[in-house]
């Protein structure tokens, strides 16, 4: 089948909606790859298309029963950065039971350039045939579908199941989903039009259109805690069943369903659900739904690491980013450092040497006082914060009162001060005496009866105090003895029901070997696999042999420099488990900054417009490069910024193509070309061979141009 004939075969509104989102080069790639797919799976059907800003296509057999998840083979996803990812649907990939190294779950045309798509598709076909998963169909091209005049429940189901994890396998009547913010929704399959039970009142939303459905509720489409509703909610979406508020709505288009999903993940929900507060009482704080895993991505200098502070505080303090942006930066940093010191925030930077042993756990060799070498299992940064977060959850379940964090920190600080002055004596469970001292930096040491000095873990002392447990954990018997002694020095209060969030910030997340660092945790960090989720998973760690699970109060914030050409993209399996938040250059932050008549906001805007035209938006110049001009708006500072930051960055972006760099700077005189004196350099070479240099130019920097404000003015001249 020729390409044009092939395009006509797929000339359907839902396919056209998807293709309309693409650039011309993307359209060509799309049709070429679709031809490849059809050659390997000649009768596979495209049965769904997303008409949102970033679209999805699903590939499989025509549906016979809604619950037959194995009918779904591929998803083709257009990402925000314009890349295509073709991946095997999760349900089908699990059926294949194959290792990622043997058969990658996805094909990313921007990353896996060395992998031939045809070869990958042939591999997929081999594995599906071995398991008798037949995707040959019966010549089920999209034209065989009857395109209905209205948006159907089946179309809504096909969209939701590719986007979210099902809580339980669908019945003929109902299916429940849990979204990326751990919020439940239920789709009623027995209705012809999409009818949803949800947990947030959508009445005043400005994002999507809907209708409330009358289903014998006192208030049209709204159920209070005591009103009966669909019995299927009890097992398919328990948080929406009787005993909780729920809302019953109808959505009439795919576009509105997509907007609803976006709203439902990010909506702010009032924390009081049982009653309406009286007007004379202060309104309670609102719960801001936060994604468990997010990555801030953008070009260099766009404030990714800078903004991790606000994102971490937003999670811990339940404040919106907009509200935090109005607060004093020094005060924000002070609070951030406080949470970090407390252990509620941890910060790590990935690099090529960073390993699983650094992140999760590994065996480390340590020598004791006698010089003997001991091999101990040491926790990595992620395991540490996960254990601390789980202890926080467990402490809330303790009957009676629990120690306050403030009094725990205070008791330990006082112990350190006493230990600096004189030895503090404690007794282990076996009545062995230990003497505790501290150095000037506040590190605690224990001297046991064998005269061996051991460095103590303040983190474990805190955790023992929080849980008040009598079991020794990780052989930390000395820390247990100290914690037991300090119980009388801390203050107690009735625990609240909410567990404190813990935040792990991973700077430069794409600089590390993701598969090697995360290992089996790639699966465990997924929302639906966390502790307390219906599909929670645990693994046995390789070194300690302990069962490990990721708590649902651990949040991961990563940063990723999208302009670093030395890096490959993120592992596809990991990428799908993160919410991506773009950090674009913000010239408006430089509003009012003026250097000898040069508007810096406009200067940055114009430079980035030219870079986008010559390259792409991932390689723009970040506003952070110019922020020092707000305090020191001088020509000397501007010159320093260009020489030390902007010019080297442009060299990196354009691979030292000085002609393009000169275009970005509008030929402002900071560089000039000069002819290559061929005969002087190559005196014994024939003139014909020197023809190689006809189009060659030599470029050099003009140092004096940086001392002249006119050079910078020419950049934005028209």
UniProtKB/TrEMBL annotation:
Molecular functions per Gene Ontology: ATP binding; ATP hydrolysis activity
Ranges for domain ATPase dynein-related AAA: 486-578
Full protein name: 5-methylcytosine-specific restriction enzyme B
Keywords for this protein: Hydrolase
Originating species: Acinetobacter venetianus
Cross-referenced InterPro entries: ATPase_dyneun-rel_AAA, Methyl-DNA_Rec/Restrict_Enz, P-loop_NTPase
Species lineage: Bacteria, Pseudomonadati, Pseudomonadota, Gammaproteobacteria, Moraxellales
Documented EC number(s): 3.1.21.-
